[in-house]
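Sharing a chain and its predicted structure for anyone who wants a worked example. Both blocks are below, sequence first, tokens second.
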Amino acid sequence: MTETVTVKTEGTSLSTLLARHYRMVFAGMVAKTFALNQDLARSGPYLPVGRTVTVMTPVEMAAEGAAARPVIDLFE
């Protein structure tokens, strides 16, 4: 299963977008997202605002055996 995430702020990298979306960091999450979005690398290191990205659901990530670690937010 997949879902769609939209970039809402400038200067957002793929790993940042995924960490914000999942509120966890999964092993291999960036590589798996690139596999789902073949043209994503054309965007460069920062994704343009309004860009939609297809991502795996957290349940699907866990089902594939990706270990999850919580995101530490220094500003909360």
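Comments welcome. Helices lie at 14-22, 29-36, 58-63.
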